[in-house]
Amino acid sequence: xxxxxxLDPPRPQPARKYTRPRHLISWPLLVVGLVIGVGLGLFYAWxxxxxxxxxxxxxxxxxxxxxxxxxxIMLGYAYDGDLDRAVxxxxxxxxxxDPIQAxxxxxxxxxxxxxxxxxxxxxxxxxxxxxxxxxxKSGCADTLLPAQDAPPTTVVEVVLPTATFMxxxxxxxxxxxxxxxxSTPVPVVVPTxxxxxxxxxxxxxxxxxxxxxxxxxxNVQDGNGRGIPGQExxxxxxxxxxxxxxxxxxxxxxxxxxxxxxxxxxxxxxxxGHSNSASEPLAAVPCTTSDGESAITSYRVVFRAG
Length: 306
Description:
- This protein has 306 residues and is an alpha+beta fold.
- It is built from six helices and twelve strands.
- The protein is 27% helix and 24% strand.
- Helix 2 runs antiparallel to helix 3 (83-91), helix 2 packs across helix 5 (119-134) and helix 4 packs antiparallel against helix 5 (119-134).
């Protein structure tokens, strides 16, 4: 008699992580990695090493900066009266439609905001109004701003001699003083012309930074220390000169403007027709930053209305 052994069929084993099919890519981890990578890239590009714009053309400015550029053009035209230059500068903005009407529209926008609350802003908008009115255009600024007051006058009493004929001779003696020429005061109105604003160079300081190497930073202020936009600045050196305007970087200050120097060149900064230039030239000489980096000495120049 033979013993027989009956074997039970093998039981199926549960799947283990070592026996499961493996994927080459973990999609959840890939998505998380992409999100982290994009976040770090944006942080580096925005906070650590942001893009620095240079050689920006006027037509590439934002709408707000274009309005400030229009103000600068109009103030420049008010200073030199060069219509061709003003029109060419307007065309460089590549504005849609009529560029003269664009000035009227910009004046309308500025007149409806707090821009005209300051004397400098009000003066700028009035210059824009004077420009487009001469070209036969109109805008809402004509009704938003009150009519400009007439220039003040001074009444001066000028004594002009008035002739009095001698009476015919009589036997009665003429009292002393009678028959002599008398003087009658005649009021004469003499217009008083307001003097043009002059500026005084109040401060020049230097600094050395790698991210602002060889820059002349100019601030033009009114008597209360507030920035004046649209003011023309001129920089001169041995081989040429250049003009630029304040107010194109309002995030810095309304009266701020800057100019990039070339190494080894000396510069003089002035407000044409309104100020004297610095007695000492601003030299673009090498300097060393606090971090030990090499750069070009930069300057901060402050003009204030006198």
